[in-house]
Amino acid sequence: MPLSHQQWLRQRLFVLGSLVLGSLFFLVVREGTLDRLQLICLIKDRLSPACASGQIPLHALQHKQALRLKLHRRNSTREQLQMHHLIKQLPRAIIIGVRKGGTRALLEMLSLHPDVVTASQEVHFFDNDLSYACGVDWYLKNMPFSFPNQITIEKSPAYFITEEVPERIFKMNSSIKLLLIVREPTTRAVSDYTQVLKGKEHKNKTYDKFEELVIDTNTCEVNTKYKAVQTSIYTKYLEHWLKFFPIEQFHIVDGDRLITDPLPELKMVEQFLNLPSQISQYNLYFNATRGFFCLRFNFMFNKCLVGSKGRIHPNVNPSIKAKLERFFHPFNQKFYQITGRTFNWP
Ligand SMILES: *[C@@H]1O[C@H](CO)[C@@H](O)[C@H](O)[C@H]1NC(C)=O
Ligand SMILES: *[C@@H]1O[C@H](CO)[C@@H](O)[C@H](O)[C@H]1NC(C)=O
Ligand SMILES: *[C@@H]1O[C@H](CO)[C@@H](O)[C@H](O)[C@H]1NC(C)=O
Ligand SMILES: *[C@@H]1O[C@H](CO)[C@@H](O)[C@H](O)[C@H]1NC(C)=O
User: Fold this and answer.
1) What class of enzyme is it (predicted)?
2) Residue closest by Cα to atom 2 of ligand 3
3) What's this model's pTM, rounded to 2 decimal places?
């Protein structure tokens, strides 16, 4: 007996309805488990608030997307195409410092390389006791997603001057590569001071003049207790690092040159990291308004470093500047000797 039109319609609706309900049920169950999983993780994190993990800088992968497309268009091997799987990896290289040496610029410029993924924020794992107590799992959780063939790099400038850090990094990976970016020590000290000064001005607070901080009024000599002076004595900190790592595991980047002529410096870093030479002049264009290089990831996506970088330094009394330069001179000589890289610092 043929079905009436109404019956036929009812049957169809029943099938359709079941499908919809089934799908909904599936989704609810699935989301439910996801939520519960997330809850468990949240509770775990809440046990120790310091161990809450940071955000995931997925936007950093924006230009990696373009690379993936390129690989598709090319005659890529199966292996190359399997790179769709995003994972988190411990850093193969760390930019350990130095503060105001150009660590942010270096990190951003290295992120131009298709095989490099960078942690967008300073992780401060090895220099912060609370974070360090969370363990390497926490460190890994704070790394960005990457493809298996890429390497992850993070930067935390405080690592260089924090006593516990070299040993802690050594315990994680004794063959890790270490990048140290330095600037002419007096310039760096002024830049260090300027950053603190701007912070104070922002809060409407007054701050001593550079000259007052940098000179010990009792002796009229350089005040070696002032942190901005100490940090510029690169050799002192490097020698401590060398108790754990051989000098071959370090690469020194010229922070002054990275600003005026970045490409040769980046080529040397690529070589040190055993990466194919990929960053080219195309990726770096000079912005005359800013007086600084901007980064071009691809024809659509470019990025200029934020405004606080490259801020104007106060004028420093020339005789005090000369005094500082004389003070740093012997330490600089030692630094050249240890690293095998000579700069034309005063
Ligand atoms: C793609 O790769 C295969 C195997 O490597 C090769 O035989 C073929 O010629 C390639 N095709 C193109 C267009 O390059
Ligand atoms: C340690 O770092 C080196 C250099 O980047 C890398 O080749 C090696 O795979 C790393 N080892 C571990 C266990 O991550
Ligand atoms: C700083 O001072 C200026 C002018 O005296 C005032 O307009 C501003 O709100 C103050 N800012 C803060 C953060 O107190
Ligand atoms: C150059 O820098 C200025 C000032 O920061 C900015 O407004 C402009 O968009 C930049 N131009 C390019 C091409 O990046």
Assistant:
1) transferase
2) 204
3) 0.78
